[in-house]
Amino acid sequence: MPSTNEWRFIEIGRLVLLTKGKYEGKVATIVDVVDQNRVLLDSPASSENCRWTGVPRHVVTMKDIEPTPIKTEIQRGLRLTGLKKEVEKQKTLARWGELAWAKKLVIREARTNISDFDRFRVDRARRVRAFTLRKKLADKLKSSGKDRKAKKVFKA
Question: Does residue 39 carry a pLDDT above 90?
């Protein structure tokens, strides 16, 4: 269980992932809290992290965002240029890219955009790898005198 300091509160500077709408899958920083149901977001476009950035300054509801564990230390209502400087200075997007969450989203996107032939190649490689591992395990079992277990593991 995370400590109190690790909870993902809705606060100014919190990096959030947009889950619905036009900017689904992009991240933005909370610049201001409008009320208990809405926040003001902004995400300066970055050349090296163009996959995640590029959300214009606008108000979204809490239902459409998911807070991340990353927070940038900024002042309330910071403009685009100041936000861009702070995000680059504190390496916010680099920290987001290192998270397993971001890596999982990249893998998920790659899997949805894969062609049928590539999907077949991946499946075939997985089966060949499993076959090779089972064969090696059976050989080790045979060398240790467990022939019955080796036959069970490797049926070829």
Answer: yes
